[in-house]
Design a protein that fits this description.
The complex is a heterodimer of chains A (233) and B (290). With 233 residues, chain A is mainly beta. Helices cover 9% and strands 42% of the residues of chain A. Chain A has a five-stranded mixed beta sheet, with no helix packed on it. In chain A, strands 1, 15, 18 and 19 form a four-stranded mixed beta sheet that branches. In chain A, a hairpin with a 7-residue loop joins strand 12 and strand 13.
Chain lengths: 233, 290
């Protein structure tokens, strides 16, 4: 009857806001086919770094895990999320250690502070090859204080050191705070999404982006998987 | 007015609205004011062959030359008085056009009148939207040059070692350091570090010939290339010491620095904390004493 429906509706509308933390989009990123073999890095020109490894490290353009999963994939909400009011106050850190970048793919929001550290005994130069943001190039000798900067526009920026040509990394500068980077399980989770229609993008540095749309109605968990086609070279 | 001519008028108005803001771009160099609309004519006569109609460095000559012509749409410039990552001043661009770029196909355009060059600067700024949203960087403060003494040169050598300039430039500055062969510019074209020992008596740098120009090169970086900015790591007075040392690497070029070095016996006093060999000054202009 009508009064019963109205009463239920009233109760639900009072209780539900308290329960609604938002929906979650989660899933796994995998690949099909054979990915390119990663090459062993020859660091003989930089003995101070070479000696830090018992076995020489490899390039990291495609990093895979058991079960054909892909690591270092940035999964984020590319459309549908409300604009962030301000950048996070916490800085993100990019470390040069063993003549490699840690992490290999660093995600930050537009306007968020970036700190670059040099933990090695050799100089590095930090050279983000930005095309939409400003491109800059700064030297950082060992023992220097962190280099601090930020990026104002959304962009996936390739980062390199010219002195050590094998060093490559990425800055993923995003407009949204809803992002996740896959680890060795290949899984990602994007929680706290209010009801609405969203476009989820998964970006891998060699394969580029893939998108899928998803709709959140309450606080359910929607499963969204991405499967990239591996390129042999 | 019939439909067709009405649409044509609207089309023209829209086109004009898009073009006019861009061509109202101005440049200010000293007393000169350059105007983009005037610069466009000159660009299409003098510059378009290399830099291309779109200003992206893809003119029809570009395929035959190395280094490639500047891509103005990226708004990244090598020779600035402003910090790395910032836009150059109008004066920087004017100087670049006037001076040209040694060891490249960019001629020195001082055959054009100053007004023409100022107009060209204004037009070049229309190729990238960055000029609309960003102001030029603030030119770095350059303190007066310190005296050229053997101590200054020695300290400069210490910096050259500590900051590992030799990794690209080599111990004698010949551009043969361990990392030199793998260097690429920001467009992934191979590029070589400056060779201080080559060149004749002028031994020009891409960004000028004076000690001040060398100072600016490593204190602002050469954007778009592997050469970084050392502004965060070198104190301004120490930077002059490095400049003085670098001049002694230019063994073919007579300079105050080379004279001071010769007077000190042709050998740079070994700084306390360096283990590497002192670069041998092997030009006949410096005396023996090795």
């Amino acid at each position: 009857m009508q009064t019963k429906q109205i009463f239920t509706g009233l109760v639900l509308s009072l209780v539900c806001p308290a329960l609604t933390f938002g929906g979650t989009v989660s899933g796994k990123v995998t690949y099909t086919g054979t990915p390119a073999k990663q090459k062993t890095i020859d660091m003989s020109k930089e003995p101070s770094c070479q000696k830090q490894y018992t076995t020489p490290p490899t390039t990291e353009t495609v990093v895979t895990g058991p079960g054909n999963v892909l690591e270092n994939v940035v999964v984020y909400v590319s459309a549908g999320a409300p604009d962030e009011k301000s950048a996070p106050t916490q800085a993100v850190t990019f470390t040069q250690k063993g003549c490699r970048y840690l992490p290999h793919v660093l995600v930050m929001e537009t306007g968020q502070e970036l700190k670059v550290l040099n933990d090695d005994q050799t100089s590095h130069n930090i050279h983000p090859l930005a095309k939409i943001n400003r491109e800059w190039n700064k030297s950082q000798p060992p023992g220097s204080p962190p280099i601090v900067d930020k990026f104002d526009k959304e962009e996936f920026i390739s980062v390199k050191c010219n002195i050590h040509p094998w060093m490559h990394g990425y800055f993923a500068v995003l407009k949204t705070s809803h992002y996740s980077v896959t680890g060795d399980s290949g899984t990602f989770s994007l929680p706290n999404l209010p009801p609405g229609k969203y476009t989820i993008t998964a970006w891998q540095e060699d394969y580029g982006p893939m998108t899928q749309d998803v709709t959140i109605t309450g606080n359910e968990t929607k499963n969204v998987d991405f499967t990239f086609k591996a390129k042999p070279y | 007015m019939n439909d067709v001519s009405k649409r044509m008028l609207v089309g023209l108005a829209v086109a004009a609205a898009m073009v006019i803001p861009a061509l109202s771009q101005e440049s200010h160099i000293g007393d000169l004011t350059g105007n983009a609309a005037a610069g466009k004519k000159h660009y299409r006569r003098y510059c378009i062959g290399c830099h291309g109609p779109l200003g992206d460095g893809n003119g029809e000559n570009a395929q035959w030359i190395d280094p490639k012509p500047r891509d103005f749409t990226a708004a990244t410039f090598k020779c600035r008085s402003t910090p790395t990552g910032t836009l150059p001043t109008d004066q920087d661009l004017y100087n670049a056009i006037s001076r040209g770029f040694t060891n490249s196909n960019m001629p020195h355009w001082d055959s054009l009148t100053p007004q023409t060059r100022a107009d060209l600067v204004a037009y070049i700024k229309t190729f990238s939207d960055r000029w609309k949203t960003e102001k030029s960087g603030t030119p770095i403060a350059i303190p007066p040059e310190t005296p050229v003494t053997i101590q200054s040169i020695s300290h400069g050598y210490e910096l050259f070692e500590k900051l590992e300039c030799w990794k690209c430039h080599g111990q004698q500055g010949r551009g043969d350091g361990p990392s030199a062969s793998t260097l690429t510019d920001s467009k992934d074209n191979p590029i070589r570090p400056y060779n201080f020992a080559a060149g004749r008596e002028d031994s020009r740098f891409k960004c000028g010939v004076t000690n001040q120009d060398i100072y600016k090169i490593f204190m602002t970086g050469v954007d778009g290339t592997p050469m970084p900015s050392f502004a965060d790591t070198i104190q301004p007075n120490d930077a002059w010491d490095l400049v003085h040392f670098l001049r002694t690497l230019q063994v073919e070029r007579p300079s105050k620095e080379n004279e001071v070095l010769k007077a000190a016996g042709g050998k740079i006093p070994k700084p306390a904390d360096t283990k590497s060999e002192i670069p041998v000054q092997n030009s006949e202009k410096s005396s023996g004493g090795q």
